[in-house]
Amino acid sequence: MELQQSFIYHSNMLAMMIFSFSGVLAIQTKKNDLIGVIILGTITAIGGGTLRDILLDRQVFWLYDTNYLLIPIIGSIIIFYMPPFFRRIENIIDYLDGIGLALFVSSVSSSLSQEGYSPSVVITMGIITGVFGGMIRDIIMNREPIILGRTFYITPAFLGAASCAILQPRIGSTWAIVISFLLISILRSLAIKYRWYLPNFLVQKD
User: Fold this and answer.
1) Is residue 205 included in any domain, yes or no?
2) Does an H or E element contain 138, and which?
């Protein structure tokens, strides 16, 4: 159990770092200074988990473990000083965001499943943790949040969280996390590569 908890903890830390990367890269054209970059990178990393803990009526995770604040701050600073050629790699933001999404959703879904929450709560909170940090960042930057567009984004998160909630009682947390992570990251990568989009909801005008 201690090994599993350690694995989940370090998966969350890695997700924090990656989400801070993608959060900063997503705003690079706005010419923010270092403080603005740190704030937005950190919001991207901790926003979803903060909302999750508030909804579950428990202590917000970064209040008792400051590593959850330190990691995205460091990640934001790294990207701020990263050579420009790295920041211009095609689709680097989307791929990093997909990996962060997969790490967050899989590890959080597994952790909540271990705590005895129902599958519906596990799935809902897994999705919230994975997508709402970026949504808050986009609202602050006056951009359309990715989950409100046609991008094939929230569907992989849902499928990954659902697979973890269903499989964990049967095959254990380690394999459930691995399968959930692979499912989300592969689906998201394929969506980026082949430009998968969901159909529009069209309203016909008279």
Assistant:
1) no
2) helix 119-140
Distances (CA, A) of 152 to 31, 78, 161: 28, 29, 15
Q: pLDDT tens digits for 127-170?
A: 999 999 989 988 888 887 877 777 788 999 999 999 999 999 89
Whole-angstrom distance, CA of residue 104 vs CA of residue 184? 10
Q: What is the domain extent for residue 24?
A: 2-194
Please state, in angstroms and as integers, the Cα–Cα distance from residue 75 to each residue in 31, 48, 99, 106, following that order: 18, 17, 15, 21
Measured CA to CA in angstroms, residue 28 lies from 25, 33, 81 at distances of: 5, 10, 12
In a domain, 199, yes or no: no
Q: Which two tokens stand for residue 110?
A: 């597994």
Report the distance separating Cα 72 and Cα 23, nearest Å.
10
Report the number of distinct structural domains present in the chain: 1
Give the Cα separation of 150 and 182 in Å (integer).
Answer: 22
Asked if residues 184 and 105 have their Cβ atoms less than 8 Å apart, the reply is yes
